[in-house]
Amino acid sequence: MCSIHDFRRDKLCRSLLRQLRSGSKNSASIGVSNCTTPQLIIRPENCFISFIFAIETLMNMKLNRSALILFVILIASAFFRLIPGMPAGFAPQASMALLGGALIKDKKWAFILPVFSLFISDVAFEIMYRAGLTSKLGFYDGQWVIYLAFVLITCFGFLMKKVNLLNVAIYSTIASVFFFLITNYITWQVGQGFARPHTFEGLMQCYNDGLLFYRQFGLIKGFDANFILGDVIWAFVLFGLYSLLTKLLVERKTQLA
Q1: How does pLDDT run across 44-62, given as a tens digit for each residue?
Q2: Which CB contacts under 8 angstroms, 24+ apart, belong to 64-70?
Q3: Whole-model pTM above 0.70?
């Protein structure tokens, strides 16, 4: 039996969909006018509709409320990568994988949700790249290793038996160093960056290039470990946000039941 909440939610979605369809008669999100080059127009109502239907889809999946909260946090964090002008190293990838491994009890979803979140943001980058909105590729040679690193960090998160400030700081630091090593190794291997020679000295130069990059463009100018600082901050934000939302949406509902 459907609840009043389900009825109202479905009614809202139908109403928003009708508004979107009526609005699309006047201007399309992606369209061709007078045989000119198609223009990509990001409309707020389209983003809101997509968000509504994403939530609807999640509600139909066999996930508990805590896992849904985690998934929403992961998706929101992944799309943070799309914001231009962020300091180097201030990105949520490693913390997203760590969060999934530490907090998602079902091992299947612990792997699926973080990786899917990263994949969605990569798809968005690829679409924006093809539309000429960014110079950052969504998909590139050797990227499978990034996803492998994501999976390994998730496995590392399984070892965090107790979530507290000290453990979050230690685990996020280790995950950050690992992610730095693997991503810069791939940069060296596929010849990106400064295309350092495929020798041990070339690999060390590539790692040094990474440190210099973070020193110059990171959160704190002149600080080599900006990538660690960014990951630790993100870990505290994500774990803290999950704890807060769980208390507000899960534990409170259990007390009221």
Answers
A1: 444 444 444 554 555 455 4
A2: 65/249, 65/250, 65/253, 66/103, 66/246, 66/250, 67/104, 67/106, 67/109, 67/113, 69/242, 69/245, 69/246, 69/249, 69/250, 70/99, 70/100, 70/103, 70/104, 70/113, 70/242
A3: no
